[in-house]
Structures are given as C-alpha cells and as structure tokens.
Amino acid sequence: MNNVVQANITDLDKVVYIDSEVIGNTSRRRIVKNAIDEKRCLIVKEMNDIVGFLIYDTHFFECSFISLIIVSPSKRRKGYASQLIDYMMSHSPTTKVFSSTNRSNERMKLVFEKKGFSQSGIIENLDEGDPEIIYYKTR
C-alpha cells in the first residue's frame, strides 16, 4: 500500500539518503531537517519504506512553492511524484501552488503537465544554458 504522510524527525536519515542517491551527497541535510521540523516535508511510502519526499514553503509571494520532489531512482516511474503532488494540492496551506524544474528535465515537465499545472514563467541564469520553468496550479 502506498501512502503520503507528513515526515517526522525519525524519517530524517532515510529522506537524506534518498536525496543523496540523486544528488550524490548529503549537503541538503539541514534543509531537510528544517522542513521536517517546520512540518513542510511530505514522504511517500511503499509498504513501510520511504521511497520519496516533497518539500515546500510559503515564501514565494505568500503562495506555496514546491521546492523539491525527490523519488528514489529505483522507485521512479511508479507514480510516487504524482502521489506527493496530489497530497500537496489537497493539503496546501495556500490556494495557489507553484513549482519549477529545469527546461531539460523532460520527466518532471510531463509530471507537472499530467497533474494539471500550467507554465507560468521562465527564470534565466540559475543553471547556465538550462532555464528554470515555473509551473502553477490552483486547488
């Protein structure tokens, strides 16, 4: 059974491990810990094993902004990112929800489009030659 719940501090090491599988290091441990402490980190489980997470905040013009959606590489293409987004959309503290991904990230762009997000803008100069596409949806 798959489910999404709010992360708690006992989930920290597993969430950081999943993040490190993707980025190759544990440099975001403090970011993950702060999100868990502030109840802004969601996890998705397969059976009782954490397979992905989502972190958001409400500092983007007082709207929810999904800053990270990470799924363990061995668990991708099974709908876990979509489950995290669905949960976020139904529990968002704000009506407007934004997120972003690099123009080169075809998989994430497809997830956003499938989940009903619309493109809302582009930010240049974050990653050289790979603009960030902003996505938007209301609940």
TrEMBL record:
Organism domain of life: Bacteria
Q: Which SUPFAM superfamilies match?
A: Acyl-CoA N-acyltransferases (Nat)
| Residue ranges occupied by any N-acetyltransferase domain in the UniProt entry | 2-139
Q: Please give the organism.
A: Bacillus spongiae
User: Which Pfam families does the record cross-reference, listed alphabetically?
Assistant: Acetyltransf_1 (PF00583)
Name of the protein in question: GNAT family N-acetyltransferase
